[in-house]
UniProtKB/TrEMBL annotation:
Top-rank lineage group of the source organism: Eukaryota
Protein name, UniProt field: Branched-chain-amino-acid aminotransferase
CDD domains xrefs: BCAT_beta_family
EC top class, as a word: transferase
Organism: Stylosanthes scabra
Cofactor or coenzyme needed: pyridoxal 5'-phosphate
InterPro entries named among the record's database cross-references: Aminotrans_IV (IPR001544), Aminotrans_IV_CS (IPR018300), Aminotransferase-like (IPR036038), B_amino_transII (IPR005786), BCAT-like_C (IPR043132), BCAT-like_N (IPR043131), BCAT_family (IPR033939)
EC number per UniProt: 2.6.1.42
Cleavable signal peptide: none
Length: 315
């Protein structure tokens, strides 16, 4: 961390940022009973601060909590807590265009459990950290390595929620891909090893002509908030936007490929490599990706007026 932001929300109160005590018997330490969220606070050109669709993050945390048998804050409690933390850290929100304040909510089983069981008590915590525009993964185009043996998630598992335990199993393959010069890994489905699922921390889309497709979440893919917003914006722009399963072969035939997520907003994909075959895609000016990117970034950072009720101002 570059700096210690001023306030952290911990179980109903704003406290200074610092280390926390945790029971060694807690279910998060022993069984990975935990969820996280990722959000950003943006400074608009007029200096106001705003956040993007926080109710969606609250709702996703509730879905995750249901799956992991934890009590979750209500949507109102969640959004109110986010606002309190951003307000307390308002001086850390970078100037318009110079970065954002990243917001990391956590919900985890902090109560003591002896058997393999959910904790009787949970902790809801939010911390923040200012990040620049060059936040890892948000730079120009991504080169993806398609992984054909290790799936990111299994049917019936927890791939559809932001379970903390979903992430460490892919550290190894992502690290290997990065060592080979790729930006990230694109994962396929666990059954046929053929259908495109998602990248390690973003959703994947393909563009072919006027058609924009992303895989249906089906419990193995995280229902990204950027993904949902892009599907709507694409329809508004007159594209045929759909959730549809597509194979890696179809991806390799696409005109454009892009990824969506809070960290990257939209990142275009310059190439995908599958079984030693590297295919390049259109990027940059005059692409569908660029059009969508300008639209969503404009709404998020306040350059464009929001008439969809997506933006929440911090007063
Ligand atoms: N997939 C995964 C696995 C992720 O971790 C993320 C980041 N939250 C996303 C997709 C994108 O979701 P969102 O647009 O809500 O950030």
């Amino acid at each position: 961390m570059k700096s210690n932001p001023d306030g952290t929300f911990s179980d109903g109160a704003l406290v200074p940022f610092g280390t926390i005590e945790i029971n060694p018997h807690s279910s998060v330490l022993n069984y990975g009973q935990g969820l996280f969220e990722g959000m950003k606070a943006y400074r608009t050109p007029t200096g106001e601060v705003q956040i993007f669709r926080p109710e969606e993050n609250a709702f996703r945390m509730q879905m995750g909590a249901e799956r992991l048998l934890m009590a979750a804050p209500s949507v109102e409690q969640y959004v109110d807590a986010i606002k309190q933390v951003v307000r307390a850290n308002i001086r850390w929100v970078p100037p318009h265009g110079k970065g954002t304040l990243y917001i990391r909510p956590l919900l985890f089983g902090s109560g003591s459990v002896m058997g393999i069981a959910p904790a009787p008590q949970t902790t809801f915590l939010i911390f923040t950290n200012p990040i620049g525009n060059a936040y890892k993964g948000s730079s120009a185009s991504l080169s993806l390595l398609v992984h054909d043996s290790l799936p990111r998630a299994f049917p019936g598992g927890t791939g559809g929620v932001k379970n903390i335990s979903n992430y460490s199993p892919v550290f190894q393959v992502v690290k290997e891909a990065k060592c080979k010069g790729f930006s990230d890994v694109l994962f396929l489905d666990a059954v046929e090893h053929k259908y495109v699922e998602e990248v390690s921390s973003c959703n994947a889309f393909i563009v072919k002509g006027n058609k924009i497709s992303t895989s249906p979440t089906l419990g193995t893919i995280l229902p990204g908030i950027t993904r949902k917003s892009i599907l709507q914006l694409a329809l508004e722009l007159g594209y045929q936007a759909e959730e549809r399963r597509f194979s890696v072969d179809e991806l390799l035939e696409a005109d454009e490929v892009f990824c969506t997520g809070t960290a990257v907003s939209i990142s275009d994909v310059c190439s995908a490599t599958y079984k030693d075959r590297k295919v390049e895609f259109k990027t940059g000016e005059n692409t569908v990706t660029r059009k969508l990117s300008e639209m969503i970034r404009g709404i998020q950072n306040g350059l464009t007026e929001d008439n969809r009720g997506w933006v929440v101002k911090i007063d």
